[in-house]
Amino acid sequence: MDGRGVPLSLIVTGANVNDGKRLNEVLNAIVVKRRCPPVRRSKHLCADAGYRSAENLRTIETHRYIPHVVSHRQEADIKGRDPSKKAKRWVVEVAHSWFNRFRKLLVRYEKLERSFLALNHLAAAIIAFRNVPLGINIIYG
């Protein structure tokens, strides 16, 4: 997800597969390639405590991201000390909520992986379109 919650990559795995095991695949599947940022700006990757292992941190750094891996408790402590700072992972939670609004995706009834992946890509395209700032007012269905 980017800073606005627009999905940048999708992969489909079984429900019993740990997210951290597929981190390299997710980072390799990013559709929108970003140019190398200037020296003063870097690419940051915010993740929860499930990605704290040394292997995952190494994967994040090999993809030239700066890892921000904190637990919910640490993030709450940081917010308690400085209320002006907002939580960084809320973007991902909001995007999951947007995907759950597509009722066809909420419970997987498709037998084929390619059908389920195609529906997820369609949902991601709709989410991305809704987050693009337009100069005219369009009512979304």
What structural category characterises the helix and strand content?
Answer: mainly alpha
Overall number of domains = 1
Can you count the beta strands?
2
Report strand %.
5-15%
Strand order, main sheet: write it out: 1-2
What's the average pLDDT?
Answer: 77
Helix percent band: 40-55%
As a whole number of angstroms, the C-alpha radius of gyration is: 17 Å
Oligomeric state of the chains? single chain
Question: What is the first-to-last residue Cα distance?
Answer: 23 Å
The helix-strand sequence is HEHEHHHH
- Unreliable runs, pLDDT <50, ≥5 residues? none
| Bulk shape | globular
Number of helices: 6
Largest sheet: 2 strands, parallel
Could you characterize what this model shows?
This protein is mainly α. The protein has one domain. Helix content is about 40%, strand content about 5%. The protein has helices at about 25-30, 55-60, 70-80, 90-100, 105, 115-130, and strands at about 45, 65-70. The protein has a two-stranded parallel ribbon. The protein starts with about 20 loop residues before the first helix and ends in a 10-residue tail after the last helix. The model has no long low-confidence stretch (mean pLDDT about 75).
